[in-house]
Amino acid sequence: MSLSEIQSRIAKAEAAHGRAPGSVQLIAVSKVQPLDRVRAVLEQGHRLFGENYVQEAAAKWPDFRAAFGPVQVHMIGPLQTNKAKQAVELFDAIHTLDRPSLAEKLARLAQSRGASPDLFIQVNTGAEPQKAGILPEALGDFLRHCHALDLAPKGLMCIPPEDQDATPHFAMLARMAADHGLAGLSMGMSGDFETAIAHGATHIRVGSAIFGARDSSARPKS
Ligand SMILES: *Cc1c(COP(=O)(O)O)cnc(C)c1O
Q: Which overall architecture, per CATH, does domain 3-210 show?
């Protein structure tokens, strides 16, 4: 599917669900994609991308930014504390703030740099034991911890369980964001972004629908 087809599906979903035109940001998830596919999307004028691995992003985006000018890149994969410094220098937003130790590290970096990427808290809406994220019942305490550290997260992010209807997870995330006065909602991927828009997504993360299937054998280490 082309970028323009995805953009028109987003516009249709915004109109169908009473969302303002342009209220949903499309993060083109370029992880593990061949560089020529990423370049083609840049050449069409798109300037917001998502990456899962710090090392891969560091190898790719400085060159693309030099060639194409400012490009926003958002970190959407798990972030190791020892890569946080590199991450805050590279990314405009981090969608995967998922534990106190990372909040503490990001707070120290924000203090010393006088700036922080936009932060989204990853919520484990399905309470899946193997999945990262703050449990829904712990979100209030985690937000208080962030505020005590002078961090002001902009929103919430979720990855619903693979084997379930995403709808209740999107609805839960939207309710939690509203309860805590957070404006950002990072939810929805290639298979369910229209449902996410119906539930208030402000940032959708779409990879394979734009770029084609990923070659999983090419998956790099973070
Ligand atoms: C890879 C990834 C995506 C994109 O998934 P697609 O199904 O290819 O659209 C979105 N969000 C996260 C967190 C991802 O890791």
A: Alpha-Beta Barrel (3.20)
Chain centre to alpha carbon of residue 186: 6
Atom of ligand 1 nearest to the CA of 95: 13
User: Residue 64 burial (CB < 10 Å; 0-12/13-18/19+)?
Assistant: middle
pLDDT per residue as tens digits for the range 70-87: 999 999 999 999 999 999
Q: How many contiguous H segments (helices) and E segments (strands) does the chain have?
A: 9, 8
Ligand 1 centre from 148 Cα, in Å? 31
Q: What is the helix, strand, coil percentage profile of the chain, to 5?
A: 45, 15, 40
Cβ pair 94, 74 in contact under 8 A: yes
> In angstroms, what is the span from residue 160 Cα to ligand 1's centroid?
11
pLDDT tens profile 10-29: 999 999 999 999 999 999 99
Residues 6+ apart with CB under 8 A from 173: 123, 125, 156, 157, 158, 185, 187, 199
* 206 CA → ligand 1 middle, Å: 6
Query: What is the model's pTM?
Result: 0.96
Enumerate the β-bridge partners of residue 97: 121
Domain ranges of the chain: 3-210
